[in-house]
Amino acid sequence: MKESRLFGAVNGVLLGIVGILTLFPLYYVFVVSFTDPAEYISKQGFVLFPEKWSLLSYKYILSTSAYLNATGVSVYLAVVGTALSLIVTASLAYGLSRKRLKIRRPLMLMILFTILFSPGIIPHYILVRDLGLINSLWSLIIPALSSGWYVFLMKSFFDSIPPSLEEAAMMDGYNDVGIFFRIILPLSLPAMAAFGLFYAVGYWNTYFTAVLYINDSTKWPLQILLQNILIDSSTSSQGSGAAEIMNEQQLPAQTLKMAAVVVATVPILLVYPLLQKHFAKGVMLGSIKE
């Protein structure tokens, strides 16, 4: 009994230390972003408990056209991309869940093949280039419209819906499209919320594909701008949109960088509480059949 209590105490202390070490970088970014510039300079760039808080860094970043333009691009990708991805994924998953579909098995094997094997970066780039999508925001949406893994997970959910609902709807005169939009989708809101969150986070964090396909700095998403802010200011000053932010001489570059990290992270974090009600239920639906 004493040994188990001792083990629990030691385990709790170790996990607490790991938790503090994990949260410290987040705390430091938050604190520095709100530290008064004069205090930050006077303390030579190391502040844990600021004596004076300031919003100057946030006010400046939020007033720059580069940040507002990049935020608009990221919001566009998250909203439009998530909506289209949900439609494509749900439609494909619903079709695969219907046993009367004759090509159901070949389609499932093709989707499974995309999960197991990836063609690589060069074939992806050649495909996007030949489609004429280079330097277009659609190059960040169309190749990421669906995921084979998400299709199978959503198919598992659709399999759990009783076929009697479909049969009753057919007797009322609904066709397959009407059944999907009027019966299936309203019953699938928890699953749609969960997968919508996954897609929204993916589109909001778009970085690597934007580096490959987007050459115009006015079409950069927020993560690309943030990367240019975080790297050396000498690189940021070479004609990029981040130069507008980093050229400010009255504010320390470090406080601007930390504020940029916060404003790039907070918007997507605010989505979680809104979908929390459906998120856990949506992830588990279809995993266990009653």
Automatic annotation (TrEMBL):
Transmembrane parts of this sequence: 12-30, 73-95, 107-126, 138-158, 179-201, 256-275
Keyword Transport: yes
GO cellular component: plasma membrane
Top-level taxon of origin: Bacteria
Keyword Transferase: no
Segments forming domain ABC transmembrane type-1: 71-275
Alphabetically ordered keywords of this record: Cell membrane, Membrane, Transmembrane, Transmembrane helix, Transport
Record's bilayer topology term: Multi-pass membrane protein
Biological processes annotated in GO: transmembrane transport
Entry-linked CDD domains: TM_PBP2
Location(s) in or outside the cell: Cell membrane
PANTHER family reported for this sequence: ABC TRANSPORTER PERMEASE PROTEIN MG189-RELATED-RELATED (PTHR43744), POLYGALACTURONAN_RHAMNOGALACTURONAN TRANSPORT SYSTEM PERMEASE PROTEIN YTCP (PTHR43744:SF9)
Family: Belongs to the binding-protein-dependent transport system permease family.
Protein's name according to its UniProt entry: Carbohydrate ABC transporter permease
Organism: Paenibacillus thalictri
